[in-house]
UniProtKB/TrEMBL annotation:
Residues 65-184 form the PPIase FKBP-type domain. This is peptidylprolyl isomerase. The keyword Hydrolase does not apply. Keywords: Isomerase, Rotamase, Signal. It catalyses: [protein]-peptidylproline (omega=180) = [protein]-peptidylproline (omega=0). Coiled coil: none annotated. It comes from the Eukaryota. GO terms for cellular component: chloroplast; thylakoid. Residues 1-16 form the signal peptide. The keyword Isomerase applies. Its EC number is 5.2.1.8. Gene3D superfamilies: 3.10.50.40. PANTHER family: PEPTIDYL-PROLYL CIS-TRANS ISOMERASE FKBP19, CHLOROPLASTIC.
Length: 184
């Protein structure tokens, strides 16, 4: 014989308990004791950027003021490895679509996040460099529209925005692959 389950009504917490809760302001924006990961096969710069040359380029290296063309991909390291941009493709739910437009900027102009600026500065055309971007070298104030590159599709923008604006325990470290295509 099956047991009969009746709905049970539990008392809700009193308003005083809910109103009495105060968030710990001192913990906002902190890493909560989590040590920053470092990888032995990556180069660590004085700024804290870590990079690995996936493919070393054979072309010219850009100088400050020159216009560079890159293709890039981005993934949220600390939040389930969610991709927010894909190389060579527009970012849809399944990375499908036509070829995307490449990203252009003038090296040293301050128009891109510090990690991309620093990472591209030492590359040669044809190279691919993987960047581990700590929060302080990424998008300032959690705003992906302040500096480039930004995701090219709505789903990519949503994925990155969720991580950047989250005030909880989400690690905001990003992984960005950059391919240097051209220098002018």
């Amino acid at each position: 014989m099956a047991a009969l389950l009746l709905p049970i009504s539990l008392p809700l917490p009193s308003a005083a308990l809910v109103e009495g809760y105060t968030p710990m302001e001192a913990l906002k924006g902190k890493n909560y004791g989590k040590p920053r990961m470092s990888y032995s096969d990556y180069v660590t710069t004085p700024s804290g950027l870590q990079y690995l040359d996936v493919r070393v380029g054979t072309g010219p290296t850009p100088k400050p003021g020159q216009r560079v063309t890159i293709d890039w991909a981005g993934v949220t390291i600390g939040y389930y490895g969610r991709p927010f941009e894909a190389r060579n493709k527009t970012k849809g739910g399944a990375f499908t679509g036509d070829d995307k437009e490449f990203y252009h900027f003038n090296l040293g102009s301050g128009s891109v996040i510090p990690a991309v600026e620093e990472g591209v500065a030492g590359m040669a055309v044809g190279g691919i460099r993987r960047l581990i971007v700590p929060e302080e070298l990424g998008y300032p104030n959690g705003d992906m529209t302040a500096l480039g590159p930004s995701p090219t599709t709505f789903s990519g923008q949503r994925a990155l925005d969720f991580v950047l604006r989250n005030q909880g325990f989400i690690d905001k470290t990003l992984l960005i692959d950059v391919e240097l295509l051209d220098v002018r």
